[in-house]
Amino acid sequence: MTTENSDGVITAKFKRDNVSVTLRNVDTSEIGKMEFKDGIFTADSISVDSATMQVPHCPLNPVVVKPKLYIRDTENDFRLAEPYCRNETTGECFNLVRVTSGYYEYNVEHFTDYYVNSSGGDYTSLKECLDAINNTNGNSCVIIGSGDYAIGGAYGFNITTDTYSGVIETGADNIAIDCNNSILIGSGIESGIYTPYMNTTIKNCHFQNFGKGIYYANADLGLVEGCSGNNNSMGLNMWFGTNIDIKDSNFTNSSDLNIKLDGASENISIVNVDARYSSSANLWAHTTAASNITVINSRFGNSSSQTCVALADSCAFINNIVENCLADDRAGLTIGTGSIVKDNLFYNNNVHLYLYGNPNVTLEHNVFNRSNDADFYGFGIGFCLALLDNSAGVNVINNTFADCLDTGITMAEINEGGNLDNNNITKNVFTNMTSSGTNKYIYITSIDVENTKVWLNNFTSSGVDDSGSNTVFCVNGQGNYYGDGISRPAGECQIDVYNLSVIFSASQSRIFKFKTKNIDVQVTSINYTSLNTEEKDINSTLGVGLNAGKEIFTFVDYVYAGSGSFGITAYANSTVTDDEESITETV
What digits encode the pLDDT tens for the residues 370-415? Predict the structure, then answer.
């Protein structure tokens, strides 16, 4: 049977006695005699791009030592056919034997004499197979039957195989592997666990000195839980992985990337993962095809040369810590169009967060604490314009910028020809900004930053440097708070604002949420004095002094890591009714 694809490549497939041969890019006029006899397939000489062989095997136990392919070297001698790949990511690999429940299958470029050596044996359990190949070179265990496979205790396995194989491989869908905290140690080139199949679960496995600790290739559905990777080239890699959850795991100290989501990896969830310390990025999912990556309650930092976290479009980055990302011209986080960044702590990064002209991004309730670099790249959030129109804009809402050595928010034109339109910057607090850099809370550098609303922000010692187009500083009668001596831009409107101070001791990191009513409108400051009897709704353990009055106000949420004191701004809030109970809570 022959077929031809849209590119004109002809494929010919031959099958007899359950042995099949598929020839790719073949000239059908050259096809001559083909014969299968006594277990040997022979054919006349023919020019092909490559061929896939399928050879049936006898019934096997569910775990087998991966067979090896041998090629005729001389008239009577065979040697091991070394595996290699034209393109590993697209699966153009040769001389590798894949084991399924019914066949040995392999791809070759040279249609000559081969045989499959399956002398490694087959086993009823994964532990038996790993014991058989422990402390050997060039061997793998392949699971060919669906089901659950648990290693009955915490063991150590030191196994070396080739670059394109895994110490453990899956050969079927619906396989669950539980290593029971066993440690797999490789030689630095192979994968710890390799799965190209659907619905693979990997639990409680620990990987050291592998090329890739875990490798999902073209795999849909999966779970990684309770695993760790340390001192690998790459901790976890997905190539076109979809609908896979990674949780309660650590992938650290990689010589390349800790976690890489490559190709069209979609619908990936990362929850409670530590991915700090790597020579390249901690987490990289920045291809144009990757999307819908959710990252929650995880920790990143200490990349020596790259951005710590690089995410693509339609991602959610929530309640994470990103710290000590100090590589030149790099950031703690970059993220794509249609994403949300919320409730995160960014600490001691060169640039906390950078958006490459991506629209429709919301940054809400984050803390950007101390940008390390005093040069241009020492700011909290940076936006540069891409070569396209971004009409959806960005929303920067209710964030805290503390101790930044340069600017808090920078909107800069890097490439001519684009714009960033319909932006909203509101309810942000800037505190303790230093003077070693430009010391600008918000820096809008280009007229191509258009229609930006800047309102209800707290500017205590510096303001806005605005070269944008149609920047608005008064929205629905609400402007910004400016400290003494700070110039107000044209179009600014006055609001009633009050300061609140809170004392922190060293090494504390807390979120305080204040909502109260009955603050005297004549009060211009609040200090650390003891609470009055009128201030019944404020928790006295916070050391906060408020004066009673008649007006209703809401306090902006604030997060701070470190010692000392800082200011929180309170704004009039017409949405709070007179009979609403006042609330103070500590998270």
Answer: 765 544 333 455 543 332 334 567 889 988 887 776 677 877 655 5
The secondary element (H helix, E strand) that includes residue 571 is strand 564-572
H/E run at residue 570: strand 564-572
Rg (CA), the chain: 31
| Cα 364–Cα 367–Cα 373 angle in degrees, nearest 5 | 125
Q: How do strand 266-274 and strand 242-252 relate by DSSP bridges? A: parallel
Question: In the chain, which residues fall in CATH 2.160.20?
Answer: 313-493
* Per-residue three-class SS string for 304-369: CCCCCEEECECCEEECCEEECCCCCCCCCEECCCCCEEECCEEEEECCCEEEECCCCEEEECCEEE
Query: 330 near 351, Cβ under 8 Å?
Result: yes
The predicted model scores a pTM of: 0.80
What one-letter code names the amino acid at 196? P
Residue with tokens 């299968």: 36
CB contact at 8 A, 107 and 51: yes
CATH topology of domain 313-493: Pectate Lyase C-like (2.160.20)
